[in-house]
Amino acid sequence: MFDEIANRYDFLNHFLSCGRDIAWRRACCRELQALHPGKRLLDLCGGTGDFAATYERLGGKPDVAVLGDFSYGMLKGAAGKKMSAVPVQLDAMKTPFADETFDVILNGFGMRNLPDAKTGLRESARVLSAGGYLQVLEFFSPRGLFNKFFYKVLAPLFIPVLGAVFSKRDAYEYLVNSVLRFLPVDEFVALAEKNGFELVHVKPCFFGVAFRVLLRRA
User: How far apart are CA 172 and CA 64, in angstroms?
Assistant: First the structure.
């Protein structure tokens, strides 16, 4: 499915969020770099590499940078972007890296696509150095009134329609359904804290349509 939408993925991300996804990634990267993390970066579930490219543009070239995704088509979409990250096709729940390979892991809108978030968090903790950071930018299952209205009423009306016009309708129906099936942000944080992480902070984006969750490996 992701292979099929790769050529329109960046455009629709920016279009559907009115460009806010760009600002959210920048905010994540600025916060991370203010903490002076190490110079080994993994953009996990990284798609076409927007997160890795933003991180490098704002903070300079990492010593090691990997763009990892399950979809080969999405990785091909990263070609031509100004970044040093090496594309690697992989399973985020069982990566090919040794323990403590990275200092920073970015995960933008990918955690909810894993078959098991618990396994994904444990694997991220395994490949992070002690004190390393996992930055999750994600759409979590809605709990507030505004979020429930947005994801249960508005989003099913316009997101699949726009997906059908510009890409694949079923992929964008999946997007909405994947949000509704995923954990709420507080339960995700609790799961992370049971699987190798300490919470640094949770920050809502656009009234909680998305959240920036910064975690530190314990």
Answer: 33
**What torsion do the CA atoms of 120, 112, 72, 65 make, to the nearest 10 degrees?**
-60
Helices (H), the chain: 2-16, 20-34, 50-59, 72-76, 117-127, 145-149, 155-166, 169-181, 185-193
CB 89 within 8 A of CB 70: yes
pTM of the predicted model as reported, rounded to 2 decimal places:
0.95
Q: Give the model confidence (pLDDT) of 19-32 as tens digits.
A: 999 999 999 999 99
Half-sphere exposure of 206 (CA within 13 A, CB side): 17
CATH of domain 8-141+183-217: 3.40.50.150
Partners of 87 in the β-ladder: 67
The two tokens of residue 26 are: 């920048």
What sign does the CA torsion over 156, 162, 165, 171 have? negative
**Domains of the chain by residue range:** 8-141+183-217
Query: CA–CA separation, 157 vs 150, rounded Å?
Result: 10
Q: What does the pLDDT look like over 118-132, one tens digit per residue? A: 999 999 999 999 999
Helix runs in 60-104, H state only: 72-76
CA distance 131 to 151: 35
